[in-house]
Design goal:
There is one protein chain. By secondary structure, this protein is α/β, with parallel strands linked by helices. It folds into 2 domains: about 5-120 and about 240-310, 3-Layer(aba) Sandwich (D-Maltodextrin-Binding Protein, domain 2); about 125-215, D-Maltodextrin-Binding Protein, domain 2 (3-Layer(aba) Sandwich). Helices cover about 40% and strands about 20% of the residues. It is built from 11 helices and 11 strands. The chain has helices at about 5-15, 40-55, 70-80, 90-100, 135-145, 155-170, 180-190, 200-210, 255-270, 270-280, 290-310, and strands spanning about 30, 60-65, 85-90, 110-120, 125, 150, 175, 195-200, 215, 245-250, 285-290. The strands form 2 sheets. Strands 2-1-3-10-4-11 form a 6-stranded mixed β-sheet, sandwiched between helices. It is globular.
Length: about 325
């Protein structure tokens, strides 16, 4: 093998394997834009543990910087020095929705998408005493009347997803905002609203006890936890929605260092121990590279913009 060939092979391996790159030479900090103890915080701590476990000598530090609906911490991440040592938790709300409602000093164009590693799936569920019990009866009811669908707050992810589905399905809905998801859930099981968007774990426990009835899954395909519950897609409505967790950073990270970070996300997302811990926490482990992650986020951003514009909520927090 020639010297030129050996040098080319070494360069390729340095990009392909985090263990062979010079980066990182000091601790990597990941900013979580929410308080400690929440699902995003817990998920990123599993990520930090997996990176340290898989790559000898690498230290990952989690820094919680809550506030502004996730905008403060996300701003700190995308405006950080682009050296690859300060990253952020890539969450749907701060990236795809918050810039449209105001209160963010960044846009989706400022975000470097490193990789996605998990998603939180969503279902539409019927609440206690709702006048519909499955997808077809829900749509039939919604053609004549606007069902009351609870959400965790005006302009939030659940509000946007319900309105976006209504737009895609050609039906009217009446969104009922609450001061958080727990308040919406209490109203749902109490029969004070007719439907809401819920996580699979939340919907499973409630449906088993007869407090909620799953109507449809916001995925391309049915999920194992609800094998008898259809998707909107199979019913002819091109609509999917899920919140997600990934790694983001500022634009301008050196390409070799960015390659290391992207490969690290890929490797942990395929790690059996990581998958087991995230699954136990109710997350759906999904790996998407930077390009696929960005495509997903931009689709959500465009959908959120259209919905918020129609509702007159663009820039409501400015």
């Amino acid at each position: 093998m020639s010297k030129t060939t050996l040098m080319a092979l070494a360069a390729t391996l340095a990009l392909a394997s985090p263990a062979l790159a010079d980066f990182p030479e000091r601790p990597i900090q990941i900013i979580v834009p929410y308080s400690a103890g929440g699902s995003t915080d817990l998920g990123l701590r599993v990520v930090a543990d997996a990176i340290e476990r898989k790559f000898d000598g690498v230290t990952v530090v989690i820094r919680n910087q809550p506030g502004g609906g996730g905008g403060i911490g996300t701003s700190a991440a995308v405006h950080a020095r682009p050296d690859g040592y300060t990253l952020g938790a890539g969450a749907q709300g701060p990236i795809a929705i918050l810039p449209h409602v105001g209160g963010a000093d960044y846009t989706i164009d400022d975000v470097e998408f490193i990789g996605l590693f998990a998603r939180s799936l969503q279902l539409m569920v019927a609440c206690k005493d709702a006048p519909f019990t499955d997808y077809d009866s829900f749509i039939a009811y919604s053609r004549d009347k606007a069902p009351q669908i609870g959400n965790s707050g005006a302009g939030g992810a659940n509000h946007v997803s319900a309105e976006a589905f209504g737009k895609a399905a050609g039906i009217k809905i009446e969104s009922i905002p609450f001061g958080g998801s727990s308040e919406a859930r209490t109203a749902c099981i109490g029969g004070h609203i007719q439907a809401m968007v819920a996580s699979p774990a939340e919907a499973k426990a409630a449906s088993d006890s007869g407090q909620m009835t799953p109507l449809f899954v916001m995925e391309d395909e049915r999920i194992d936890l609800f094998p008898d519950t259809p998707t909107a897609v199979e019913k002819g409505v091109d609509f999917t929605w899920s919140s997600y967790k990934g790694l983001i950073g500022p634009k301008g990270i050196a390409e070799p260092d960015l390659a290391w970070l992207r490969e690290a996300v890929k490797q942990i997302a395929e790690d059996p121990d990581f998958i087991a811990k995230m699954t136990e926490a109710g997350e759906f482990v999904t790996y998407e590279d930077g390009a696929a992650f960005e495509k997903r986020a931009r689709k959500d951003s465009d959908m959120a913009h259209a919905v918020l514009e129609e509702l007159g909520l663009l820039g409501m927090n400015k």
